[in-house]
Amino acid sequence: MSTEPLLQAKDVEVHFPVRGGWLGRSRGAVKAVDGVTFDVFRGETLG
Fold first, then answer.
1. CA angle at residue 41 from 35 to 47, to 5 degrees?
2. For residue 29, what are the contacts with CB-CB under 8 A and spacing of at least 6?
């Protein structure tokens, strides 16, 4: 059996813009995920 992961994710970042103010301009961002790292190996489930 291989010890190599089927999926590798390193330093994942997901940011969503915060809209509002004058003409719906961006007013910053919400950090949903910031710097997450994970591996998924054969037989594992993610979710």
1. 60
2. 15, 16, 17, 18
31 Cβ neighbours under 8 A, 6+ residues apart: 13, 14, 15
Residue with tokens 């910053």: 28
Q: pLDDT 10s per residue in the chain (47 long)?
A: 578 999 999 999 999 998 877 777 778 899 999 999 999 999 999 88
Measure CA of the first residue to CA of the last residue in the chain; give whole Å.
23
Token output for 32 = 């949903």
How far is 35 from 38, CA to CA, in rounded Å?
Answer: 10
